[in-house]
Amino acid sequence: MRKIISFMHISLDGFVAGPNGEMNWIKVDEEIFDHVGERVSETDTALYGRVTYEMMQNYWPTAGDEPGASKHDIKHSKWYNKAHKLVLSKTMEDTGLTNTKIISDNLLDRINEIKHGSGSDILVFGSPTATHSLIQQNLIDGYWLFVNPIILGQGIPLFTDIKDQIKLKLLSTRQFTSGVTELNYTVDRQ
Description:
By secondary structure, this protein is an alpha/beta fold. The protein has one domain: Dihydrofolate Reductase, subunit A (3-Layer(aba) Sandwich). 29% of the residues lie in helices and 28% in strands. It is built from five helices and ten strands; from the N terminus they run ββαβααββαβαββββ. It has helices at 30-40, 50-63, 71-82, 107-115, 128-136, and strands at 4-11, 15-17, 45-49, 84-88, 100-103, 122-125, 142-148, 156-157, 168-175, 181-187. The strands form two sheets. It has an eight-stranded mixed sheet with strand order 5-4-3-6-1-7-10-9, sandwiched between helices. Strands 2-8 form a two-stranded antiparallel ribbon. β9 and β10 (181-187) form a beta hairpin. α1 runs parallel beside α3 and α2 crosses α3 (71-82).
């Protein structure tokens, strides 16, 4: 069965964005891009909330074709254009979108159906609102977190309105020279 893995940059105090969605505090560099690129290349499906999908759709389809595009932009643009995209949205229409499926209702049933289908694990890229919905339905199977060395004090939290404990098992960690620490967890369903 396919797993849904939440991929997030997070502050030390648990925020995934500032109060107005700011992400300028996130540290990324070639070391992180190369590491993330390896794992992303192993998946064929991305899941986004509407806002993140629109942001990605405005950049990635042509990012690799731009003059002076970085190695990362070229590689991720190619991956993005081939990847299956799932978008959680109650307002988007599911018409004329390439490799994209809109999920607007019956989240639990629709996602479980996809998880039982063929393909690789599904990465949730950012998308805090979509992640909150998936957490509420107990649909997240793992967390791939990049803890940035900053305390924001306020913002959009990764975890909110949690009804029951979520037990995790640490799979791996990695420290990057930028001070970012990767934490890779699986949800312990025992």
